[in-house]
Every structure is written in structure tokens, then in C-alpha cells.
Design brief:
The structure holds two protein chains of two kinds. Chain A has no helices and eleven strands. By secondary structure, chain A is an all-beta fold. In chain A, the strands form two sheets. In chain A, strands 2, 4, 5, 9, 10 and 11 form a six-stranded mixed sheet that branches. In chain A, strands 1-3-8-7-6 form a five-stranded antiparallel sheet, with no helix packed on it. By secondary structure, chain B is an all-beta fold. Chain B contains no helices and eleven strands. Classes of the chains: A mainly beta, B mainly beta. At the A-B interface, β4 and β5 of A face β5 and β10 of B.
Chain lengths: 114, 115
């Protein structure tokens, strides 16, 4: 089955700096890669996603890049703010007719210091 | 903005007792998922429904866990008997379509503590 590795497990940055989180996946058939933000005591919130026919996607301060050949994708957050502090999860899915089960990475705890 | 609803938000139960969680997906979402998230880890799929039918329950410990979505809308996940290792966050998610690549939206989860 699919295996998703996520690094780093913790990341501390100064407010205003950029943060980068990286994930690798094992199944070349995976074609959908969402990123979730999870705050303490809450469910994961979808913040951005990318499909395999696109190499990069941007939404304001958040961007995601995908390298299908290398089977890795990354989340970039620019101009970080204290409210960006949370646990971020990457995931991968094959999106076939049986549904699009997500396989998650282990998570990255991002701390933005004011 | 429509959200996935879950209840209860927190549940404390003793080992060997039965416990049940409820999920109401976003209106019109045909696909519903139950995930389990152990503290410090990513969510792992337990069961997936398409309307009232189970699509994937390969990771559901069927000796003690059961899930149903009788009318293809809300869903219940049950554990009987609960074990200490079942302590985790139980997350429900829904998706608007039955196939292809579509976003999954998560509810707030039920935090289960087994004592």
C-alpha cells in the first residue's frame, strides 16, 4: 500500500520567515495530494491541495509543489504569522472508483515565534 | 459554511464497556469516512461508505468495531468492548462525490479515553 513520509516532525521559525514542509510517497499511482492544518483539539482543515497534472499551486501565502518523478511534494508558507502555529499533515490518494482513501504523513508541528 | 458534525466531542469509558460515536456529514455528500488518529500521528482510515454501502473496511477491527450508515446520511461507529489501546481521536470526514478526486472535509472529532 501507499506510504507517506513527512519531514521535519517539528519546525520553529520566527514570525515573518518562511516555512517548508516536505513529503515523499511510495505509490506512483497516487494522483491527489492535500495538505491539512490541525489545531489543538480540532479536526484537520484542508488548506490546499494539488493534483498530479499540476506542478505548483499557490493560494496567498501558501504554495504547494509536486515532483512526480521524484515522488515528493512540499508545502511552502511565506510571511509566517503566529496563527500559522499548528500541526500540518500531508496526504496522498489514488482517487479511483473505489473512493479516494487518504494516506497521511506523520505530521509537522510548526511553531511561529512572535 | 456547511460542516461535518460529530458527537460527543469527548467520551471517557471504562475498559470492556460499549461506546458509540455519531457523524452527520455535509448535506449532499455521498461518501463518508471514519478515521482514527492516535496522539502524535496522522489519521488512519477505518471505514469508507458510499451512500449506505461499505466501500472499504479492510482496516476496521471487526471483532470489536462496527459501523453503519443505514439511510446513506448520518453514520454511527461502535466499539464493543472498548480496550485501553482504543484511546484516540475518532474523526469523520465526507466528500461530495462517489469517485474521482474530491476533497475530504473533516469534523471536529470525538476524543475517546478508555480507562
Amino acid at each position: 500500500g501507499e506510504n507517506v513520509e513527512q519531514h521535519p516532525s517539528t519546525l520553529s521559525v520566527q514570525e515573518g520567515d518562511s516555512a517548508v514542509i516536505k513529503c515523499t510517497y511510495s505509490d506512483s499511482a497516487s494522483n491527489y495530494f492535500p495538505w491539512y492544518k490541525q489545531e489543538l483539539g480540532k479536526g484537520p482543515q484542508l488548506i490546499i491541495d494539488i493534483r498530479s497534472n499540476v506542478g505548483e499551486k499557490k493560494d496567498q501565502r501558501i504554495a504547494v509543489t509536486l515532483n512526480k518523478t521524484a515522488k515528493h511534494f512540499s508545502l511552502h508558507i511565506t510571511e509566517t504569522q503566529p496563527e500559522d502555529s499548528a500541526v500540518y499533515f500531508c496526504a496522498a490518494s489514488k482517487g479511483n472508483n473505489a473512493g479516494n482513501m487518504l494516506t497521511f504523513g506523520g505530521g509537522t508541528r510548526l511553531m511561529v515565534k512572535p | 459554511e456547511a460542516e461535518v458534525a460529530q458527537s460527543p466531542r469527548y467520551k471517557i469509558t471504562e475498559k470492556s464497556q460499549a461506546v458509540a460515536f455519531w457523524c452527520d456529514p455535509i448535506s449532499g455528500h455521498a461518501t463518508l469516512y471514519w478515521y482514527r488518529q492516535i496522539l502524535g500521528q496522522g489519521p488512519e482510515l477505518l471505514v469508507q461508505f458510499q451512500d449506505e454501502s461499505v466501500v472499504d473496511d479492510s482496516q476496521l477491527p471487526k471483532d470489536r468495531f462496527s459501523a453503519e450508515r443505514l439511510k446513506g446520511v448520518d453514520s454511527t461507529l461502535k466499539i464493543q468492548p472498548a480496550e485501553l489501546g482504543d484511546s484516540a481521536m475518532y474523526l469523520c470526514a465526507s466528500s461530495p462525490r462517489t469517485s474521482g478526486i474530491y476533497e475530504q472535509y473533516f469534523g471536529p472529532g470525538t476524543r475517546l479515553t478508555v480507562t
